[in-house]
TrEMBL record:
<protein>
    <submittedName>
        <fullName>Ribonuclease G</fullName>
    </submittedName>
</protein>
<keyword id="KW-0812">Transmembrane</keyword>
<keyword id="KW-0472">Membrane</keyword>
<feature type="transmembrane region" description="Helical">
    <location>
        <begin position="31"/>
        <end position="52"/>
    </location>
</feature>
<feature type="transmembrane region" description="Helical">
    <location>
        <begin position="85"/>
        <end position="110"/>
    </location>
</feature>
<keyword id="KW-1133">Transmembrane helix</keyword>
Length: 113
């Protein structure tokens, strides 16, 4: 059943939950367009489209009892996605620092012989 009521104010906002977890978000919200994320190369663009359109798609495809329920569910997805995004960035930074450390260690060991 699809929503026919007025749209919530947050329907056109970015969705971190859908951006970071497009596959799970799509299945959980019955928005199967997100499954295009499984197509290689295309998914590099599609993930941004999903992040931008997710709130609208979720509102259109689900029947929420009221706007507060919709906002609570989307806020939960967005918090989880944002935390995952921050952890992803932290992992990238740590990997870069580790590579720099290994390079410096290699230079020290090479020059000591």
């Amino acid at each position: 059943m699809e929503n026919q009521g007025t749209e919530p104010a947050l329907v056109d906002h970015w969705s971190w939950g859908a951006f970071m977890n497009a596959f799970n978000w799509g299945i959980g919200n019955r928005v199967y367009l997100t499954l295009w994320i499984l197509v290689p190369i295309f998914n590099l663009v599609w993930v941004f489209i999903v992040g931008a359109k997710a709130h609208r798609w979720a509102w259109e495809k689900n029947s929420y009892q009221n706007e507060a329920e919709y906002n609570a569910i989307m806020a939960t997805w967005d918090r989880a996605g944002f935390v995952q995004f921050i952890l992803f960035l932290a992992a990238i930074v740590l990997n870069i620092l580790f590579i720099i450390f290994l390079g410096a260690l290699g230079v020290v060991l090479f020059n000591s012989n």
